[in-house]
Amino acid sequence: MRSDRQMKVYYNVLNILGDRMSKDLSAKIILVGSSEQGSKDGLAMAGSVKRYLVTVFSVAPSRITTQGRIRPDIPSQQSGGTKELVLLREGDRRVSIESNSPGLLMEFQSGPAAPLKPVAINAVQEAPLDSYVTFNVDGASKSFTSWSLELTDESGKIQNLGPYTEDRVSIPGKSILGTQLIGDYNVKMIGQLKSGNSVVKAASIHMVLWVAPKDNEGMRYSILYEFNKSEAINMYHKYLTNVVITKIPIGGKVIIHGHTDVIGEEQYNQRLSLARANNVRTILENGLKKVGRSDVTFEVSGFGGNQKLSPFENRFPEERFYNRTVIIDIIPEQ
Fold it and tell me: I need a labelling partner for 84 at 20 to 30 A (CA). Which of 57, 98, 107, 179 fits?
């Protein structure tokens, strides 16, 4: 009963890995299986991945080392944790792929000339980040128990959004406009004070439906984070520095948005997702400075565990794992 979309991701990962190992005979990997049922079970899990690579891609067994353990090197269930331990243990049952071979860090190539065609995955987020409407309510997390939005269009139709607790909320423009190309709205922000009273602020907005450009397309990359961590592991640090930075055009714009799974408190996850996004920004900025570049514009946001914006659902541990991510959109100069 695993997510069909997640299984496609699994096979994409394994097929890309197998294809690269079959072409780069110097590449070696370590498969580390972790299982709460014991190191023997973890070793069996790692062995099943090895068999797939050996059987389907004819990778020499000597190039793949397998290990079994009870917990991964960076476990989701951390020392001192007391909440949602069942969900955290589920995330610790996995097979990790470790390697120092630089060829395995290459970006994945798509298109007619690509060596391997990926399985199609329907993206949840169809539009770039700048097609979202962002509402800023400074100090909301301190002053309000919650706040909500009331949007009224020109015909008098009302949309109610919320409640929210963070200071900043981004909403897809399409979810407000629907099939309309443009729209004018009167917006009321209704904040519930901790005293029990409410505050109402009004404003007007004009919206235009975002349409995908036919040319001058951007590029999208992403990296994953371990549970409750906001520092990229060394492999992803190298990926951002050696691969992603080289793809940022002169005068380009980099839009970075961080995500978390739904485990934990909403406000904490909001801060964690923003910290992850800023971690990526710092790595990219430092890498650009080393090559003498200061021409890139950055836009950074954190969406926490917002399930409307998450790349995956949160039913299964692997979906939650893939939601602990930062997505990087590179937009050429307009």
Answer: 98
